[in-house]
DNA sequence: GAAGAAGCTGAGAGCCCGCTGAGAGACGCG
DNA sequence: CGCGTCTCTCAGCGGGCTCTCAGCTTCTTC
């Protein structure tokens, strides 16, 4: 877990360095913008802590250059409270969070952790079909306000259907995508699980989101039935 | 590409506004729920970014009202980490994604893009002949607003005819393409099924899309009869 | 106008497809 | 070890789809 600290004030840089190392991070220090960009180009940092007031190339420049180059590493900006840039600017120029000096190390640590948490695997948005919804990341689904308790297999099946709304998906596709291409059992399993699903997401609500297309497969109604 | 940002904190609203404009979005700002609903009623937004903590009508209300009105515009919820609503609630009340404050602009942008990507309807090519239409992917067909219920064989036959409008197709071709080259039964089956089709797509509408070309085959009128 | 060819249609048989209930096996948990 | 849950198999059933067949209508040709 590598962190780059771009800071020209020796005492601050040193304090942050020691503190982060004590917390188990690997730390690189750059005392100006040019060196910072060089390091960023050749290393993969988890977070960049960036002072705005730097000799030569300032933090503003660094941040823009970074983003322009398509680097999306989270950036935490350090601003002097009375500085010429304010918080709004910091976000505007592509930073992910900011901290005004003087700051407490505990707060800095907390912010860094928050950034790391956030840059963790991107959650995909919630899938919807009318009032029927499913959150792949949180592994939850429901109809309107009502939560639905699905088994893993049922969940996988519904997720696949929701990713192909208003399209007929063949049982062969379902078998391959939900059960896996290597599945060797009775293909009838698809019908069985569609049955289970209907009894949870449709029957209790008097709806019919999953339609049977005889001889072809199943279709999930994009409006939820 | 219009985005509505519902946010009462001036500096955040401004930063998001500027950031999104820089990315080429059109941005409207609403500082409370009532104004937001007013704007939504009269504009067609691609995405709505909605803070939950608002003066007056809160984000919770706005989202439910929206959904209750049948508006399906993707909603991205902003929640305070320590707020009274948590992320789980956001999904239940009809949001499509959520982000906890403080959030990074890069992440916000990525999430907005993800929502846009998902809400972009993947158009499947629909076959048409006048008001007669058939969607191969969804396996649906109809005449005008009226849905037609076809059996698989009827559907296959109509699909083939629609792919060769204003062209005479021989019964031999139909047999080979719709029934399969290996078909060994009575070729009369084509006439039988053309009959079935006519009774569903023509007779009830007083039309005649499928014309008989005696001694040659059938022709589907490209204007639907 | 008659005869034959081509196409249409109603009736019905058989069967395929999809649905369901019962239950066995695997697995995890207390 | 007992219990509950989940996954999957299996067999039966019910309905609708496909197809055959025979009789009828329409068109063509002489």
UniProtKB/TrEMBL annotation, chains A, B:
<keyword id="KW-0597">Phosphoprotein</keyword>
<feature type="modified residue" description="4-aspartylphosphate">
    <location>
        <position position="51"/>
    </location>
</feature>
<feature type="domain" description="Response regulatory">
    <location>
        <begin position="2"/>
        <end position="116"/>
    </location>
</feature>
<dbReference type="Pfam" id="PF00486">
    <property type="entry name" value="Trans_reg_C"/>
</dbReference>
<dbReference type="Pfam" id="PF00072">
    <property type="entry name" value="Response_reg"/>
</dbReference>
<keyword id="KW-0238">DNA-binding</keyword>
<feature type="DNA-binding region" description="OmpR/PhoB-type">
    <location>
        <begin position="124"/>
        <end position="222"/>
    </location>
</feature>
<dbReference type="InterPro" id="IPR039420">
    <property type="entry name" value="WalR-like"/>
</dbReference>
<feature type="domain" description="OmpR/PhoB-type">
    <location>
        <begin position="124"/>
        <end position="222"/>
    </location>
</feature>
<dbReference type="InterPro" id="IPR001867">
    <property type="entry name" value="OmpR/PhoB-type_DNA-bd"/>
</dbReference>
<dbReference type="InterPro" id="IPR001789">
    <property type="entry name" value="Sig_transdc_resp-reg_receiver"/>
</dbReference>
<protein>
    <submittedName>
        <fullName>Response regulator transcription factor</fullName>
    </submittedName>
</protein>
């Amino acid at each position: 877990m590598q962190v780059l600290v771009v800071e020209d004030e020796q005492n601050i840089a040193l304090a942050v360095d020691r503190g982060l190392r004590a917390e188990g991070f690997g730390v690189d220090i750059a005392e100006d913008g040019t060196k910072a960009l060089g390091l960023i180009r050749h290393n993969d940092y988890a977070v960049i802590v960036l002072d705005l007031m730097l000799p030569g190339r300032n933090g503003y420049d660094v941040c823009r250059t970074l983003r322009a180059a398509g680097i999306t590493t989270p950036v935490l900006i350090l601003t002097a409270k009375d500085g010429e840039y304010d918080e709004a600017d910091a976000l505007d120029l592509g930073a992910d969070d900011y901290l005004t000096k003087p700051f407490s190390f505990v707060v800095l640590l907390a912010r860094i952790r928050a950034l790391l948490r956030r840059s963790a695997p991107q959650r995909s948005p919630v899938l919807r079909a009318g009032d029927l919804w499913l959150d792949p990341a949180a592994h939850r689904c429901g109809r309107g306000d009502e939560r639905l308790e699905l088994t893993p297999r049922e969940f996988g099946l519904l997720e696949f259907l929701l990713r192909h709304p208003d399209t007929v998906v063949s049982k062969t596709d379902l078998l391959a995508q939900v059960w896996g291409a290597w599945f060797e059992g009775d293909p009838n399993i698809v019908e069985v699980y569609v049955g289970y699903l209907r009894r949870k997401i449709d029957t209790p609500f008097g709806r019919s989101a999953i339609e049977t297309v005889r001889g072809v497969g199943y279709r999930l109604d994009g409006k939820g039935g």
